Amino acid sequence: MPPDPHGSMPQQSPAPGAPPGHPDPEPEDNQPPAPARDRVSMRSEILQPVVLVGFAVLLGVVARVPLYFFYDYLVGVRGPSPGLGTAISMASNALLVCFPVLALAMVPSLLARQGVEVDEHGITVVQRSLLWSRGRTASIPWRDVYFIKRAASSGSKLMLEVQLSRVDHELRMPGWARLVLAGETKLGSTSPRSRVLFTARYHLVQDLEQVLRNARPDLFEAPPAEAGTPAARGTAESQWVNLRWRMMLFGTIMLVVFVPANFLISRETLRDISLGSLFLGLVCLGTTAFMIWVAPRMFTHQGVSVDSSGITLVQESALWFAGATLHIPWSEVRTISEGVVVRSTGEGSGRSASATVEVMLRSPDWVSQGVPIWASVVSRETQQSPASPEEPLTRVTIKPGNRFRPRVVEALHAVRPDLAPVR
């Protein structure tokens, strides 16, 4: 676009998909005045971690009571059994230890300096690092904010909703601010736009709303209704497939059963000075440490988002896990197909098959960051069509399992039926 006769730069067009009522900020006099810097602290009071740990200890004690009633019942039916007593003791100790340990792991993230900063550039969500809690900083420029409103969650909890016209899929948020991708249901609400939900104590949400309203009152005005033009390729309605529950069952069994069992075995075997017992004890301790290290990956918010911009594999950060998010724009997707991963069960010639979704990209070495644990990347695929030794491509394998693969395929077909596997 040529410059105007006065030599000023041409005005920018609204972002693709943005309605005419809420265009990007203009560089001329029509742009709202630059807001003054302001900050709202979201740091927890010291009493909150104390209450959290105390409640966790109480929960661990109360959870042991049904075990003892169960033990008395079995003793009355079968008689005393040393093995049964050991098993009940292990389970009760696990409950007494696991809840307080998980609560203590959350304390640094509550006490770290954190809050929302607002200036002429946009909104910045900040959480400083403290001990094993990783710091997080997420910047949302004003040009990406579509609309701001107050809302109530399903539990009648006050929250502030910041709808986005464009989303940075690499945003890392603390617990009181959650990036919710388009089409995903969170806290009882769903939106066709990606959004950031701020949930905290009532007066903190009120303070944040007032700061944002002072900075950009125009963003609190209801945007005009968008024209309902049909999508060219599919419904174009954003889809979300939650994969959290697939990992949570294994994670719960791992923490409640295997971790305490390994710890108790290592404690007993390390008392023996024999080489074999020492080796077994060290192996059990190492296994316990590994299980605790991977536990946040099992319980964190995770899933597959499909919208008009592309495919996003999400595994959010939690405790000492930094998180892993991969966004694949449609322009980079060449083919999508269904696949199967076959693994040996370790029992003779036994095999187990797990359903997958294969996404072939248009160029090799495209993915440079980490991916969720239920996905894998081959940077230079040469064997699977349409790749070849002369034209290597990047292959991304999504492993939702046999139960969840139909949901992933259905989500892909709803948005891009021209690329999705034939159902």
UniProtKB/TrEMBL annotation:
Region annotation (Disordered) ranges: 1-40
Transmembrane found in the keyword field: yes
Keywords: Membrane, Transmembrane, Transmembrane helix
Transmembrane residue ranges: 46-71, 83-107, 247-265, 277-295
Protein name as annotated: Uncharacterized protein
